[in-house]
Amino acid sequence: MTVLEDRIAMADTDACTQRLDDWFERLERMPVPEGFRVEIVGGNVFMTPQRNTHWQIIFHIAGAVAEKYGMDRVFSDVRIDFPGHENGFCPDVALLKNSAKPDGGGHWRHQDVEFVAEVVSRGTAANDYGPKRTAYAVAEVPVYVIADPYQGRCLVYTDPKDGDYAEPAKVDFGTDIDLTGTVVDLVLKTGAFPRD
Fold it and tell me: Of 22, 83, 115, 188, whose Cβ has the fewest other Cβ atoms within 10 Å?
């Protein structure tokens, strides 16, 4: 890239971040019902109810990751901006690098994300399997797990290359997910994951 192209790309990124900041400020002032999660995927606002099944799976995953890495590195439902058009995601579970620090605006950087897990909801399943998977791959998130209570299985994506993941490992609920060969370096037990 040339210096001019670098400056244009930086200006575009700054403008996108500012638009996302504006959107989230407006959303925070709206009367969003309790128990709903709000995020922006591809410039579209999604408001999803947190159902019991959804939360139980999140709790199990976050608990397992926090047990190994501590609570300071594990987040749920916290905004992280990802590559692509206006992607202000609030991952169900995210693990940040030990060295991660918020940017000047108080936001976590996608470059510091080592692991993401999303639990499928009926209304936003297409996001988890589509634009989010793509954005996580472009951001080079080393491990992305989709837990799908409707199918009773998890998809495990690892080692993104050239903006995409290879075919995922498919793991049925009740079978352990062995992540010991990844940066996460743990075995995630799915036996208590409820189904819908």
Answer: 22
d(C-alpha 121, C-alpha 119), whole Å: 7
Tracing tokens 């903006």 back to the chain, one arrives at 163
pLDDT value of position 5: 41
| Topology classification of domain 3-188 | tt1808, chain A (3.90.1570)
CA 27 to chain centre: 19
Non-local (6+) Cβ contacts of 157 within 8 A are 133, 136, 137, 143, 144, 145, 146, 165, 166, 168
Q: Determine contact, residues 168/177, Cβ cutoff 8 Å.
A: no
Strands 93-96 and 113-119: antiparallel
Contacts of 137 (CB under 8 A, 6+ apart): 144, 157, 160, 163, 164, 165
pLDDT tens digits for range 150-180: 999 999 999 999 999 999 999 999 999 999 9
pTM of this prediction exceeds 0.85: no
Q: pLDDT tens across 27-66, in order? A: 566 666 676 766 667 766 767 777 789 999 999 999 999 9
Dihedral sign of CA atoms 167, 153, 68, 130 in order: positive
Side-chain-facing half-sphere of 50: CA atoms under 13 Å: 19
